[in-house]
Write a structure and sequence with these properties.
Structural class: alpha+beta
Oligomer: single chain
Largest sheet: 5 strands, antiparallel
Bound molecules: nickel (II) ion
Low-confidence stretches: none
Number of helices: 3
Shape: globular
Distance between the termini: 29 Å
Order of helices and strands: HEEEEEEEHH
Mean pLDDT: 97
Strand content: 25-35%
Length: 169
């Protein structure tokens, strides 16, 4: 297993659209193991392959208190969403230190393939539903700050670039 570097906003590579996984083989199993290790190390609750510069439709999530219930979604597709939505405060490992409100469906059903290559449907609500929608956005090249006003987004962009310059010194 290996820790993988996480792309930071506004890296343009975060806006690439991920391709479906053709076959769940040992390469994908290694990718998932590395993504889980990277997510837990960064104390995140979700990570999309896009964030580690792999542009394939793979997501890992763990919203459990004990960090012992990993969920792997390969080729996830939204099949149902609730009519009710809520504004939830979100953060992102690619936008460290920034938290803001995003409107999301309260509940979603997602069809995906698991690590054994088996199709399954996940019924998600509350935090899991928010996390699934956030990570699926990543696979489409969308970062949560893009839901915010241009003014806020530009402020965040400047802050991130400044932090990255300071890190590079
Ligand atoms: Ni994120």
């Amino acid at each position: 297993m290996a820790l993988l570097p996480i792309l930071c906003y506004p890296d343009p590579k975060l806006h690439r659209v991920a391709k479906p996984v053709a076959v769940v083989d040992s390469r994908i199993q290694t990718l998932v193991a590395d993504m889980l290790e990277t997510m837990y190390d960064a104390k995140g609750i979700g990570l999309a392959a896009t964030q580690i510069d792999v542009h394939e439709r793979v997501i890992v999530i763990d919203v459990s208190e004990e960090h012992d219930a990993p969920l792997v979604l390969i080729n996830p597709e939204l099949v149902w969403s609730s009519t009710e939505t809520h504004l939830n405060e979100e953060g992102c490992l690619s936008v460290p230190g920034i938290y803001d409100g995003v409107e999301r469906f309260d509940a979603v059903h997602v069809r995906a393939v698991d690590l054994q290559g088996q199709p399954r449907t996940i019924e998600a609500e509350e935090l899991l539903a928010v996390c699934v929608q956030h990570e699926m956005d990543h696979l489409m090249g969308k970062v949560f700050v893009e839901y915010l006003s241009p003014l806020k987004r530009n402020r965040i962009k400047k802050k991130m670039l400044k932090a990255q310059r300071e890190d590079a010194l």
